[in-house]
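Quick one: ABC transmembrane type-1 domain-containing protein from Elysia marginata, structure tokens please.
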Amino acid sequence: MWLDGVKSREVAIVLVVVIVVVVKVVVVVVVVVVVVVVVVVVVVVVVVEAILVVVIAVALVVVVVVVVVVVVVVVVVVVVVVVVVVAIALVATAAVTVVIAEETPVILVVN
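--- reply ---
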């Protein structure tokens, strides 16, 4: 066999060296994988937060625009209602004044 001239101590040393190298490689690979996973998670979290910030900002702008439009519509409706009520009151007052004037006899006082 090819191991005939090799002492068992030399084989043991080679095996220990191989095991140490394999363990180091495995540790390095695990550390690299963990670092990559952490970086990916951080990037995903940052991107998701950025997207959420944009979505929230757009939602707030939409809410503000809707509130402003509703307030403007309510103010316009209130102004129109007030103008109509005042106009009706003025017309009614004028009509009552005309009726009272027609029904009231004119009394001339002569000195």
